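Internal tracking record. Fields below are filled automatically when a chain is submitted to the structure queue. Please do not edit lines marked as system-generated. If the sequence contains nonstandard residues, flag them in the REMARKS field before resubmitting.
Queue: standard
Priority: normal
Entity type: single polypeptide chain
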Amino acid sequence: MWTLSGFADEISADLDEQCRVFTELGIGYVEFRGAWDTNVLDLDDDQLNQAAKTLAAHGLRTSSVGSPIGKIGIRDDFEAHLRRLDRALQVAARLAAPMVRIFSFWMPEGDDPAIHRDEVLRRMAALCDRAAGSGVMLVHENEKGIYGNIPRRCLDIVESAGSPVLRLTWDAANFVQCGVRPYTEGYAMLRPHLEYVQVKDAVLATGTVVAAGDGDGQVRETIRALHADGFDGFFSLEPHLSAAGPLGGFSGADLFATAHAAFTRLLDEQGIAYR
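SYSTEM-GENERATED OUTPUT FOLLOWS
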């Protein structure tokens, strides 16, 4: 049975409101990215404890820490950022999250990403070394503008790192915004390393983000193949139906419910059980 999660901060900055909507939708997990207009890694210990208590009071668990680790320029200082991963691992431990989402660094505009490959791989290896022994899995998301934004470079990262703590997150909309047909061009290549799925879609001609199944992200083909393969993991709603930016997006309660309905309708069409 597949498990639904999502970025509840797309609903509201208020954590209680986030939890209320998730409870109404019957979603039992949160990909925790932020609350009270504060990124998850910038919450102090008191705020983090309050967040953990609020989630527990609503019966919600954490599927992943939606961290911004790796969302710095490839030429930016890495040592301070590496220490920031320590906070992400602390947050994951406090929220009992099995995963932390990461990225593979912004590429300078106009540069061939191949120029920066060695530095990307050095940094990814350092992140993996830092997470080793923590019990937390690092899951790399294919964000546009970073090194690992297209399938072959995502594969390069995970294979070159060769670490048991590094796996991949699949984001169809991000692939589309990079000119990729996700299922056709990436599924077979990346499926062996796939751990987690972000749920959003986009239109190839414009890059506009839309509800799952309404764009060119080949969501139907992908979920059909995952079901046939026996995939059993998290599907995290990240609708971005009202606003989107480099560090997150927003939908509001109504549009989040629209995104939830669109995705669950696809699952129902395929006869896929979910919770």
